[in-house]
Amino acid sequence: MKRPAVKCVREAPRDQVESGFTSILRRFWGCHDGVLAALFVDHDGECVDYCSELEPFDAKVAGAQMNVTMAQLVEPLKNLAVGVGISLFVSGTHRELLVRRVNDTYTLVAVLAPGAVSDAVTYVFEDTARALRIEGMLDAANWDPIEGGVEVQTRPAAGWGYAPVAIHRAGRERGIESVLGAWQEDGGAAGGTLMCFRVVDSSGDELTLAHDVTRKSWLQW
Q: Which of 22, 24, 50, 125 is deepest in the core (most CB within 10 A)?
C-alpha cells in the first residue's frame, strides 16, 4: 500500500543540493498541512538543510533568527532555575514557530501556520530532532530527554508480520485504535528500510509510526 497523501501543497524549488537530512525534514514537513518549513541549522545559524513551501531565503532567515533567539535564552533560563533550555514554542498572529535543540551545536526550527501546533505535531517534531542526530552521528547532550525515543508495542499481523498496538514515551502510553495501512520506505535514519504504519491512536489522531529495521528503533510523524 502506498503512503497516504497528507500534504496538499508543493515543496518550493530548492537552492541547495539534497543531503541525508533532507528526507527526514521532508517527512516532518509532510506530516501536516500547517507545517510550512523545517530547517536544520548549526551554531552560527547557517542552514545545514531544509524543506519548505516558503521561499528558501525567507525560511532560512527564520531558521537563523530562531537559532539566535534560542541561544540567547539559554543563560537566562538557567538563572531563573528553569534548567537547560531545550525547546521553544512561539504563537503569533500570522505564524507559529517551534525550536528544538538537537544537541549543543545544532538546532531544528519549524515555521507553521496559526493553530498548526498540536500534541501530534510536537511528537513528530521531537522524533525529527532525534532522527537528525542519528543521521548526522551527532553526540547526544546529557540534558536531552528524548535519547530513548519512542517505544512501540506490536502484535502479529497477517500480510505485514507485525503491527503496532500501543505507543510508550516518557512514561506515557497511547493505545492504537486502528491501523489504516502499511508500506515500506528506503533510506531510513541509518540508510536502511523503514516499515511504516498509518494509525489512529486512542485520542483519535492520525499519525505514522516508522520502524527503522536496521537500527531496530521507532520514529513517529
A: 24
